[in-house]
Amino acid sequence: MASKKSVISLISYDASFLPSSIRSYYEYVDEIILGLDEDRISWSGNKFSFDENQLMLDLAAIDTEGKISIIEDNFHRSSNPVENDTHERNVLKEHCSNDWVFSFDADEILVNAKEFFVDYCPLIENHKDIELMFTWYLLYKRI
Fold first, then answer.
1. Is 41 exposed, middle or buried (0-12, 13-18, 19+ CB in 10 A)?
2. What is the DSSP code (8-state) at residue 129?
3. Cα–Cα distance between 108 and 55 in angstroms, integer?
């Protein structure tokens, strides 16, 4: 039996990209935990905004199986952005109920999600306590 999978992702200044990202892997994962700073402040201490109503509508349209949860918390506690990044991802990970936890940024789309989750993951799912790191080749970036 395949292991259940969780994804964590972040909602911030690039929130408009998030629905496309989630659509790319939604059918292959069991839960998606999204983090949102309660004060709408970035890890670097900058205020950010996005069309919250539109994002919630988009997420509701995608989430036909009730997989998406949003965790709002203070994710800008430190003056060090790296500490804030680590803190937020760790908080989101604590909310995951599965052993497999993947982290995808809002502006990342899995172009081979089926092959990754259906073909590759089962090859290594019986190995415990391993971390995988991949090198991503960005062919283009939308600014």
1. middle
2. S
3. 16
The SS3 assignment for 108 reads coil
> Are the C-beta atoms of residues 110 and 25 closer than 8 Å to each other?
yes
Amino acid type, 125 = E
pTM comes to: 0.86
- pLDDT by residue for the chain (143 residues), tens digit each? 578 999 999 999 999 999 999 999 999 999 999 999 999 999 999 999 999 999 999 999 999 999 999 999 999 999 999 999 999 999 999 999 998 999 999 999 999 999 989 988 887 776 666 666 666 555 555 54
| Strand blocks (E) in the chain | 5-11, 31-37, 68-73, 100-103
